[in-house]
From TrEMBL:
It comes from the Eukaryota. The keyword Transferase does not apply. GO terms for biological process: gamma-aminobutyric acid catabolic process. Its main location: mitochondrion. One of its GO terms (cellular component) is mitochondrial matrix. Pathway: Amino-acid degradation; 4-aminobutanoate degradation. Belongs to the aldehyde dehydrogenase family. It catalyses: succinate semialdehyde + NAD(+) + H2O = succinate + NADH + 2 H(+). This is Succinate-semialdehyde dehydrogenase. PANTHER family: SUCCINATE-SEMIALDEHYDE DEHYDROGENASE, MITOCHONDRIAL. One of its GO terms (molecular function) is succinate-semialdehyde dehydrogenase (NAD+) activity. Residues 60-517 form the Aldehyde dehydrogenase domain. Its EC number is 1.2.1.24. It comes from Rosa chinensis.
Amino acid sequence: MAARMLAARPFKLVSHLPSMHASTPLFARQISMDAKGFASRLVDAGLLRSQALIGGKWSDAYDGNTIKVHNPATGDVITTVPCMGQNETNDAISAASEAFSSWSKVTNVERSKCLRKWYDLLISHKEELGQLITLEQGKPLQEAMGEVTYGAGFIEFFAEEAKRVYGDIIPSPLADRRMLVLKQPVGVVGAITPWNFPLAMITRKVGPALACGCTVVIKPSELTPLTALAAAELALQAGIPPGVMNVVMGNASAIGDALLASPQVRKITFTGSTAVGKKLMAGAAGTVKKVSLELGGNAPCIVFDDADLDVAVKGTLGAKFRNTGQTCVCANRIMVQEGIYEKFVDAFTKAVQKLQVGHGFSEGVAQGPLINEAAVQKVESFVKDATSKGAKVVLGAKRHSLGMTFYEPTVLSDVKSDMIIARDEIFGPVASVLRFKTEDEALRMANDTNAGLAAYIFTNNVQRSWRVAEALEYGLVGVNEGLISTEVAPFGGVKQSGLGREGSKYGMDEYLEVKYVCLGNMSSK
Ligand code: ADP
């Protein structure tokens, strides 16, 4: 592993950040100026952290190993973070366990106040956090700042929910008894998060966990750990006590195994690939932990003949191209009824053509790079399979001239259900458009998958919107809307897309145990 590049703490930015991109001088100059300007602001705010957080202390890996964090738009190394494993994770679990004994006893109102302060700090640093997200994840700055608002929204919402952890009084069937239900925090939570929403995937787990009185060990994606560390720094500034929120990173399977093996960890919450989710679910069996999983999707986006074309194009564009197609709720199969098919493909393609590709810091950019080379190669292989089986390239279908991991916004028509692109998650800026004749056929196609996270329908027929929404085997359904995720509504999948819900009042249940208390001998004087 690379030695540490700069000794200074807490900030350690490699000197060449970000280097010029020889073939695109204008593009590079834009990055350079923006990045330098914000880097100093991040440092001033103490938000550029490059150590993990265990028991309130910033920590290196015990053996000094590090991993590099890259800017996906340039390939430059931004900084290094500790490459941790079992020992550091066990210490983080011990810290969380110790903190649990006091945090779980703090009043709900006090916990609510801490979370509210954290929310305020996240919002007051919206710009810096957005810049950090753009730097390590690549999404356009406006979108990144949107993620901060969205992600912080979970902390605000659960700060309020903290005050509403109600139990029940059960009418007793026996005269001498009184029966009640208490809701209590489940304990130490292991939270494993992906790179596509470096902030929001953390806040929607940690918000309800802390509101309920749980403590957490977070393992962010090694591709985007800096946002997690900045959020943790703000949590400390908000007065969330040491040990309540720990962040470790490094060897994913070693950290995951340590979380799974520990009897002190009572809950695993995960967002990521279906394959890793299944491993975690199996691993949690050893100590019978509670498990929440947000896994892969294969979202159908069904456009009926009776849809409003403009609404359908706008909604599908948002559902498909948000985060350059890298979300588990992205429209993976755009299924269009034959009567509107040509008109839709034409109007949709015109809209896609307008999406500007570039570095996330550049003005007007709507599509950033993909997260890494492997992601581009996956997209390329899906497109190759589809075109070799008869799909037509309407737009794009190749790497962007900017190089690196930029890929052209792409539209493929005449996609068929048996092509890989319609069966697996694309996770890239490729819209695959299928054709159907009847509502029954659309439903059969839509439900013919093991995934069941998000689905979208576009229709102006009220009866149809109810009928189809009810028949879709999915956890979320957008009707005439492509962006439906919010902290106030439950998010989660059915079938192999996951277990449990995040956001909304249902998101609290995942971090609570239900305890029945029976008081006997209650009728004698
Ligand atoms: P993606 O392909 O979107 O990166 P992954 O499921 O591989 O999805 O990653 C999501 C999160 O799971 C990341 O934080 C990653 O480091 C972590 N992860 C990957 N493999 C394991 C594992 N075996 N145990 C625990 N966490 C893992």
